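worker-03 picked up job from queue 'complexes'. Input manifest follows; two sequence lines, order preserved.
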Amino acid sequence: MSTSAESIEREEKLQGVGCSRKRKEDPRFIQGKGNYVDDIKMPGMLCAEIVRSPYAHARIISIDKTEALALPGVHAVLTADDLKPLDLHWMPTLAGDVQAVLADEKVVFQMQEVAVVIANDRYIAADAVQLVKVEYEPLPALVDPHKSMDSDAPVIREDLIGKMDGAHSKRLHDNHIFTWDVGDKESTDQAFEDAEVTVKENMFYHRVHPCPLETCGCLASFDKIEGKLTAYVTSQAPHVVRTVVSMLSGIPESKVRIISPDIGGGFGNKVPIYPGYVTAMVASIVLGRPVKWVESRIENLTTTGFARDWHMEGELAADNEGRIKALRVNVLADHGAFDACADPSKFPAGMFHICTGSYDIPNAYARVDGVYTNKAPGGVAYRCSFRVTEAVYVVERMVDVLAQKLGMDKAEIRLKNFVKPEQFPYPTALGANLDSGDYHTALNKVLDAVDYKELRKEQEEKRANGELMGIGIVTFTEIVGAGPSKSCDILGVGMFDSAEIRVHPTGSALARMGTITQGQAHQTTYAQIIATELGIPSEEIQIEEGDTDTAPYGLGTYGSRTTPVGAAATAVAARKIKAKAAKIAAHLLEVSDDDLEWDVDRFKVKGVPGQEKTMKDIAWAAYNNLPEGMEPGLEAVDYYDPPEYTYPFGAYLCVVDIDKYTGVTKVRRFYALDDCGTRINPMVIEGQIHGGLTEGYAVAMGQELSFDPEGNIEGNSLMDYFLPTAVETPHWETDYTVTPSPHHPLGAKGVAESPHVGSIPTFTAAVVDAFAHLDVTHMNMPHSAYRVWQKCHELGLDKAK
Amino acid sequence: MIPEQFEYFAPSTIDEVLKLMVENDEAKILAGGHSLLPMMKLRFAEATHLIDINGVEALKGISDKGDHILIGAMTTESELIVSELLQQKCPLIPEAAKLIADPQVRNRGTIGGDIAHGDPGNDHPSIMMALDAIFVLQSPDGERTVPANSFFLGTYWTELGENEILKEIQVPVAKPNSGYAYTKLKRKTGDFATAATAVILTLDGDTCSSISIVMTNVGPTALKAEEAENLLAGKVIDESLIEEAAEKAMSICDPAEDLRGDVEYKTHMAGEMTRRAIRIALQRAKGEI
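worker-03 finished. Artifact:
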């Protein structure tokens, strides 16, 4: 390849891979010109509002709609009984369970959907909601998942009584969902028996909610003449919604059109299909008018997909030098009243098998039991690749616990146990196949950057003065890019993804993908990939996603799968076009393909200066001057089925100072080094890292959905639920290394979730480290001032000076 | 916001406001709206008639009256913060106003609304009690004044009578050799105080000649820590006296448990905020900061 100044200049003009191209989405967003579901209006549109249960567990005695129906402007009040004849009162979940669209005979969580009112506008609908009279007989609520399998526990799911063959395993109790385990239990148990040192810790990864700025909503419009249903939906996976809607409604999939317009953040919350979407669609079919449903903030936080809620017991076995011999994890997973986890269908615990982390651990065993409670359903992947957040948390916490037991430095124990660069690809004891990594370099770079030794020295001095300073270190490995369709599917559809690129006669291009951006800047970065592959300037490449009538089938955007899968499809589709372009160029230059070389945006005849054809020339020729027998046009589609996951990693370090009199934790420093392989747009990556770190900070330090003993949800408005503002958000320092994925066409790995997954245990590690000299090994999140003060108070540290 | 239906009035004079209140029994006064509108949004507050007093110019503004400053009830928090008059002559008010909610709220929220709502979580009640402010109330029967220290009767319960509005607030200017502080612990921007304390003290040489200590959100109303005040008045304040005063302040706390913390935590935080406020006020009175 030529590296002349002239060709470098041409390359820069393309704004391709590696360029910090400004986000193409931003001009419309910052001018308020975005087009979200609630911005869309249709002639004759009606509004839906949902009647919700005040109880966490109750039998429905009666529902009286009379008064509501009498209110002028009300068109319908639908209940489960109305949906029954259509067989739409229940729907399948992504996790192999079923979920009531509208409560069928009983309610099983607070604010469950009981009825839906359709009216001229939201005001009338909300008035009518108050007029729907529902009589309940309260039942004892099951809130503590540890009591779910008690013999006298109230049965939550009466529809499943006696059905002991669950979707993933035998069910052990009426409130049991599944048992999932992985690894060699026998060898692991043996390693624990033989170990010189073992450690065990119980930790609760609390229930949180992704809380995207835009809540969920749907505008459904059924055309009775054409028999076609069009729905604008806040969905991270519009094609999956189309397939499910077709299966549920019996409408041919070709007559279902799902459009995800601009989406104001998803973070996993917009992967599932919610009762609100279904009721809007059903109401539109029944009434023959467009029906819009948009939930409020409280409805979003209370009823749509929560994340985490795992009670984990972690154990490590090691020798006296700190070499880890085995990991054992037992998890009790609270899934709420319906198993509505959003995982690949065969993975009820998601990608939890990544819980051996970045370490060379010879023996491991993990078991997860899912149970029902009287809480909202969910278990979505909140900015994480399906339970990777939980996996990273448990192993990183346990490595710290082990270090403390052995009196070892928390960085040293990691360096000692890392998988070594020469061991890649590295098969883990739990079946992951780490594609590439250089963990030692990453951690050492961070330790040098922050002058780790000096920090430890300062900490020692502070401790001598009775001050609390903590240093948290996390070295995580993620598993992203679900996934190889041999193992990963959603309701039977393999988790490939797709790209379709058309180069127009004048050399610009249109590309459509099966993924859907929710703020990740796909419009910007996909164009950069095509620019580099085809030599077409990014500015001349239009990216479209989200309309199932035009985009090729894809599984959507979540689990950091866009770059590992969608970007791979894009690169491969572009390469198909380039291969054809080479033939056309050879034809135009009257040489053989082999005589050509690619130079940024053109094919040149090797060794013959001036003999060249640009992609623009070739595009024109593709429509009027082709080699004999070649079909016209210059376009390609690729459905990319990844051969393997990708494994991004990073090394994070956090320094906190704790005010022992108030419990307020101040993040003094946070240094995040990420390795996501090839970096497509460094500026977009930087933005993703900042966003993920800030969300991680929110989860670790404040976000929590808690419940009282009656199952009433607490903290479900932004008055309590912690969204950090610029005031609370720490200053982030970022860094990177580049270890390309060996199997990805671009060497890229996916990055947006790393900072969330990696930062959360880093905050916990830092807070706990502040108390480590007082024999504290773990503290549960969130590390609010209240909770941290309780620890200070318990240890008598808050006594007046 | 999807509230129930309500009738909306936008008068421009105090007389019109009072007339509307008399004519509409159930009417609610809309000031900045940051307490009322969230309640209406959730349909907790029934407001069939809303009297929006944002257009009443006579209720706005800050003026210098020599020994005191007069603040119109509809003066916004942002206006309090930027007032040079207050910064120079009553710096406790701008300092405290900066700690209320966030800029958007402060641009709408008013000092009068904050006081008249009677919410123990609001910050101005403590500030006004610590300052010994006087509230001027107006009803169709005329004008009367009520000292801040006898205005707050309970949660959402004040001396304001039926058909009576808070018109303006008289705050005394800061004395020489005095110091002030408002220390507030909150979970995040926009939150109410977990606990907060307002302190004003005056020194005569090294001796504290007078002090007021009032705490926010640890009881049904703002709480004046009189025993603590009595302990410190007339003494040279040192750390051990501060500790003793904090203990006395804590002993009158009666906070409600919520997601901010339990009774024990909130009580301890009231104690810690009190310690810190006394220390800062003392340093300011001495001219150390």
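worker-03 released lock.
The two ends of chain A are 70 Å apart (CA to CA).
Residues 142-417 of chain A form a domain with the Aldehyde Oxidoreductase; domain 4 fold (CATH 3.30.365.10).
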